[in-house]
Amino acid sequence: MKRDQEQGEEPRQTQESTPEDPELSREEEEDVGESQLPRAVVLHEIIRTQGDHELERTIAALAWSALAAGLTMGLSLMAMGLLNANLPEGGYSKVIASFGYSAGFLAVILARQQLFTENTLTAVLPVMSEPTLHNFGRLARLWSIVLVGNLIGTILVAYVVLHLPLFDAKTDAKFLEIGTHVMENDASAMFAKGIVSGWMIATMVWMLPAAENARIWIIVLITYLMALGDFTHIVVGSVEVAYLVFAGEASWSDFLLTFAGPTLAGNIVGGSLIFALISHAQVRSDT
Predict the structure, then answer these.
(1) Closest C-alpha to 142, from 129, 152, 130, 127
(2) pTM for the full predicted model
(3) Which residues contact 257 (CB under 8 A, 6 or more apart)?
């Protein structure tokens, strides 16, 4: 009987059995790798390479692209004016009409035209990676050409929108309201709001390489929030304020001293000195 009991006993397991880790095929491993978001250092290198390419472009190429971008940004003013003119007063009209602000940005960014505030991040990263006098000179050259080209384009489109019979009286009145609303800010408010605007554009530029099919939604979301928050942007705002100047509602000294100077400084601080510097420091700390 004892032998039968011994024979009936099951051998004891000396250690617990654990399921083996599943083995992945090469295709599945590739799927896992592709599903990962790019590391910050990868995004940094993508944008730095783009910036280095922009710094090497000829003066003519930069100038024509910047002029085209300035003209294209007129779409933002036109879209907001048309939406405001065709929406009922009050209520959610600002919430809806602010989507018009995104029109110019979508056209400029997807067409790869030169926009100054994009370059406060893209062209700055090569300089931060290699801060030589040569690179600082290349950055100053790029910024000056692109800024002048953008402003010439915005001023031209503001003049055309005002003087050609393109829109009805109600829409023209909305254009004036948009410009007047911008000029309700004093110089310090222009600067402070410009910092936020520059930071938001730099955030958008940083996100785009990883956005893939969501690029349009990222552009719309960021620029829509800029419009909703009334944050000042040197290029879009130039169309709005120049329209006001040509209509006799503001002077060129107002344009330069109250709007353009403080807004430009704020955009540079927000895009270059805050976002670009912090992003570069983050990547340097990882390497």
Answers:
(1) 127
(2) 0.82
(3) 187
